Amino acid sequence: MNLNTNFEDNTYLIESLKQGDEKAYSHLIEKFHKKLFIYAFSLTNNKPLAKDVLQNVFLNVWIFRDKLDSNLSINNFLYTATYNEFIRQYWKNQSTKDLENKYAQALNEVINETDEKTIETLMSIVTQEIQNLPKKCKKVFLLSKEDGLTNMEISEYLEISIKTVEAHISKAYCIIRKKIGKKTSSILFLLFPNNKTS
């Protein structure tokens, strides 16, 4: 019995993967790539997206190989992983679309009421106000808006309580609102368009 024939055995294949056997990984890709691609394409109806889905599935199998369960059917596992990755990609794309729509809406709201020069002035004022924030307040605010971290992530990263994080963010908002009023949210979104919490 040669090595590739051994890999036809579900348990042996998974155990080999768990041990970091690159030949087992190559066998896995060679055996399942074509039919999984067909399945991914049937879900996405988009070849580039189907390729992305499949690439992530196989990459994750390798990265998290030590967590594979030898008792599971590798066939069923891969199909489930492909479906789950499709769902993840779908919602990611959907979130991006929602974000783009939100950005366009914020831009339109400001433009409808404000000329371009005033918008630039407002953005400049907000940028300056952020720079003038107390040191800790500024750090928390930028971690939230610029880096897109959640309050929980900021709390863990800075080793402070969530209430402290919330207090710093509220303080920053109050300071900015005093300067530019009701346009605060729209201007912040224009400054930090990739942040979902703006």
TrEMBL record:
Transmembrane segments: none annotated. Residues 126-172 form the RNA polymerase sigma factor 70 region 4 type domain. It holds the Pfam family Sigma70_r2. Keywords: Sigma factor, Transcription, Transcription regulation. Residues 28-94 form the RNA polymerase sigma-70 region domain. NCBIfam families: sigma70-ECF. Belongs to the sigma-70 factor family. ECF subfamily. This is Sigma-70 family RNA polymerase sigma factor. It comes from Aureibaculum flavum.
